[in-house]
């Protein structure tokens, strides 16, 4: 079974020149993504959260991650809005505590947050409270994160490329091609 860091580098190189920008960021990619993949393999549900500008990407992920075309078992994934429709109206730590308690009770503690978006967006607050959250975060260094720049004119394309690498990594982990254990 291949080491995840080396496997990621080989996969990035195999995807071609358009993925070359990812090669220098693989040291951020590897630890954050291996933790997320371990949690998926452990049967945890992904609670996906994006900022408002990445709502399109949330829909893309939800539409594609368990596509019937894939030849792997589906994984449990939901978005925060499906758990609490009024999440955008949440303000203050006490209300976030209540929402987090509801999520914890609903999913019996077997979940992690996957946040994609600006680090200063209030939708990130609930994910930032959990040590096992997974982040594709913009303009901020944060634990368990893959960092991108919000002002990058190719950001949307890069998000799709990173998602492609995530899908390949998920398949590799599920089929025992790569070792994602820390």
UniProtKB/TrEMBL annotation:
<dbReference type="InterPro" id="IPR021011">
    <property type="entry name" value="HobA"/>
</dbReference>
<dbReference type="InterPro" id="IPR038381">
    <property type="entry name" value="HobA_sf"/>
</dbReference>
<protein>
    <recommendedName>
        <fullName>DNA replication regulator</fullName>
    </recommendedName>
</protein>
<dbReference type="Pfam" id="PF12163">
    <property type="entry name" value="HobA"/>
</dbReference>
